[in-house]
Amino acid sequence: MTDTRKGKRDEAESETLCRRCGGCCYEKVRFGEQVVITDIPCQYLDCKTRLCTVYLERLEKQPRCASAADSIEAGTLPGDCPYVGGRADYQAPHLLREHPEYRNAVTALFRGGHSAVVL
After folding, report:
1. Do residues 69 and 83 touch, judged by C-beta distance below 8 A?
2. Taking the C-alpha atoms of 6, 7, 12 and 14 in order, what is their torsion angle to the nearest 10 degrees?
3. Which of 42, 46, 33, 36 lies closest to 76, judged by CA?
4. Distance CA 8, CA 2 (A)
5. Residue 24: what are its φ and ψ, rounded to 5°?
6. Which pLDDT tens digit goes with each residue over 20-37?
7. pTM to 2 decimals?
8. How many CB atoms lie within 10 A of CB 42?
9. What is the C-alpha separation between 38 and 76, in angstroms, rounded?
10. Residues ≥6 apart with Cβ < 8 Å to 61
11. pLDDT at 107 over 60
């Protein structure tokens, strides 16, 4: 049930929206105003099951992991995510594989260069 006083979902309701696709569990990089989802999975993502191996402790163990609300605000959830479905005001991030012009910058970033911000 949505808490109309705060306009936020409770945790149980929020969990029912998640498809367990793992799409939010890939490293993201911000280039100015543009967010790009890389093809680099979080170290805690089981790529076969698409599940987080430390889900209950994810926010403590992975500093870049964010709650659904924080991810929506930051614009880091994939456009097909149920958390942002139907939101006309949501600017979905680009997928790295769809924008090869970002590939060199992302590669440099994860090898120690700093041309963008890792989210």
Report:
1. no
2. -140
3. 36
4. 6
5. -85, -5
6. 889 899 999 888 888 999
7. 0.75
8. 19
9. 11
10. 44, 54
11. yes
State both tokens at 69.
Answer: 């609300």
CA 33, CA 19: separation in Å to the nearest integer?
Answer: 27
Task: For the chain, give every domain's residue range.
Answer: 2-118
Over the chain, what HEC string results? CEECCCCEECHHHHHHHCCCCCHHHEEEEEECCEEEEEEEECCCEECCCCEECCHHHHHHHCCCCCCHHHHHHHCCCCCCCCCCCCCCCCCCCEEHHHCHHHHHHHHHHHCCCCCCEEC
| pLDDT above 60: residue 8 | no
The tokens of 14 are what?
């929020």
Largest Cα–Cα distance in the chain?
46
